[in-house]
Amino acid sequence: MSPVQGPALLKVSGLKKSYGAIRAVNGVEFEVRPGEIFGVIGPNGSGKTTMFNSVLGQITPDAGRIELKGQDITNLSPLELNRRGVGRTFQTLQVFGKMTVRDNLIVAAQEHGGSMFSRMFAPSDSGLGAKADELIDLFRIRHVADKKAGELSYGQQKLVDIAMAFMSEPDLVLLDEPCAGVNPSLVGGISTLLKQLNQKHAVGEKACSFVVIEHNMDFVMDLCHRIMVMVEGEVMAIGTPAEIRGNKQVLDAYLGS
C-alpha cells in the first residue's frame, strides 16, 4: 500500500551531532509520510545510529529540530515519545527472559497505558490481554506464548521483541536492524509481517509508519517505499528502491558498481 498523502508524520530538519572533532550527523534532513516504510542505509560509521538515537530521545543533538505530527519533539525522553505514539526496537534483544511471551507484550504496553492509579485498578493483564493475543497470532508465536522468553530460539525472541514495539499501537515505529543475527530463513517472514502491519494500519489516522535501519540490502529494497542513504554523517540520496539502485553516486560510494 502506498503512503498516505498529506503532512509528514515525522520531520527531521538540520540535525547535527558531534563527538569532539567527529561530526557523526551533519545537517540531516528527511520526512516520513503517514503509512510509509522508510529505510535508512549506509556503511558503518555513516551516522545512522546517532541519527536514530537523536530522534528517539536517547541522545541530545547539538542542533536541529524533530517534529512528530507537526509538534516539536526534539529532546523529549523515550518514555514521553512512547506516550506520543513512537515505538522502537533495538539492535540487541530487549525481552524479559524470565517472563512469558504474553507477559512480555503486556509489560511493553503498560507504561503507555496511563497512570499508576489506573494500572492498579485494571484487570490483572492491565486490559491488554486481547491486544497481546492479537499480536501473538499475527506473529505466529501462539505455540510459545506461555513459555519464558529466555527459553526461545534467537529468531523467536526477535519476533517477540518486534511484537512488543506494536503493543502500544504506535503511529511510528523505528526498527534498528530487525534482521541482525536472524537465520536467513526467517528474514522473509519478518518482511511479510512488517508489510502486514503497515497495510493493516495505513489508512487515514490509523496509518503506521516505520523507519528501518538495516544492512540486509535485499530486505530493505523489498520492504521500503523510500530509502535514505547516509555517508559520513550526511544524506547522500533519498528515493525509491529503484532510484537508489540506479544512483551512480550511491553505487560508487556504498553499494558497489
Automatic annotation (TrEMBL):
Cited SMART domains: AAA
* Single annotated GO MF: ATP binding
* Top-level taxon of the source organism: Bacteria
* Swiss-Prot/TrEMBL keywords: ATP-binding, Cell membrane, Membrane, Nucleotide-binding, Transport
Name of the protein described by the UniProt record? ABC transporter ATP-binding protein
Q: Where is the ABC transporter domain?
A: 10-257
- Which CDD domains does this entry report, sorted A to Z? ABC_Mj1267_LivG_branched
